[in-house]
Amino acid sequence: MIEFPNFDPVALSLGPLKVRWYGLMYLLGFVAAWWLARRRAARADSTWTPVQVDDLIFYAAIGVILGGRVGWILFYGTEQVIENPLTIFRIWEGGMSFHGGFLGVLASMWFTARKYGKNPADVFDFMAPLAPLGLGFGRIGNFINGELWGKPTTVPWAVIVDGVPRHPSQLYEALLEGFVLFALLWWYTARPRPRLAPSAVFLIGYGTFRFLVEFVRVPDANRGYLAFDWLTMGQLLSLPMIVAGLWMLALAYRRKLPSGNYR
Which residues are registered as beta bridge partners of 160? Predict the structure, then answer.
């Protein structure tokens, strides 16, 4: 077991400007997504141009931030915002919902598809392997912030927080929803797949990993367990993703429509 080092959430101070690790993790995720998207767009058989990639990542970044914050307010932080409305703007303190950010990214990808005359499903598929690394870096930011801890445990890799050994659930999510899911999707999309199949694999993978980690993660204090003394808000929001992903995967391989991301 290791003692939580109580990281300083501020990575760099430049006078009144404070650069926080949480924000840097998001920036790292966007840069990684942009670089990987540029690599995919550079393939001889790709239908994407560098300018389209730049716009996609820019709009996705806006969708993540706005959707993630609005989602957190609606799903988890309503009481805090009612008590102090300025909480809405304190993104550097954490408080981002994946499911809200996911909806924001969907909107940004739909906008990109409309702008460039692409099929929205193709844009979703192109984005599918790019998102997990950002999720992974974001969870590392949660760990540095010392938030979203797991339940007390005796496992040898537990992290001691205020004298209590706990599951480092943020790192579990960073590994599974981030790096494992990225590796799976990057390999899966290395060659053309039926339209909607990459998006389906993302939904199934993220939904399953998030649902499982929630069993060892402490639920938000203002929500607690929603039912059965184990069902959390995160699990409730992940279930539709798994169901939709399974349906989309079956549909994709039944129709076998060619992806518009390749010539």
Answer: 3, 165
Q: Where are the domains of the chain?
A: 2-255
Q: Identify which of 194, 35, 192, 196 has the alpha carbon closest to the alpha carbon of residue 128.
A: 196
pLDDT tens, 206-229?
999 999 999 999 987 767 788 788
| Total Cβ atoms within 10 A of residue 156 | 8
Distance between CA atoms of residues 170 and 185, nearest Å: 21
Pair of tokens at residue 207: 């939904």
Structure tokens at 102: 């996911």
Continuous H helices in the chain: 21-41, 50-75, 78-83, 98-116, 120-127, 131-145, 169-173, 181-188, 197-213, 233-255
For 232, left (φ over 0), alpha (ψ -120 to 50), or beta? beta
Q: Decide: helix, strand or coil at residue 227.
A: strand
Instruction: Dump pLDDT digits (tens) for 168-205.
Output: 999 999 999 999 999 999 999 999 999 999 999 999 99
Q: Are 120 and 113 in contact (CB under 8 A)?
A: yes
Helices 197-213 and 131-145, axial angle in degrees (round to 10) = 20
- Using the 8-state DSSP alphabet, how is residue 189 labeled? T
| pTM of the predicted model over 0.90 | no
Q: Which two tokens stand for residue 83?
A: 């008590």
Percent of the chain exceeding pLDDT 90 equals 65
Return the number of other C-beta atoms located less than 10 Å from residue 90's C-beta: 12
Long-range contacts (CB closer than 8 Å, 24 or more residues apart) made by 78-81: 78/222, 79/222, 80/222
97-138 confidence digits (pLDDT tens): 767 777 888 899 999 999 999 999 999 999 999 999 989 999
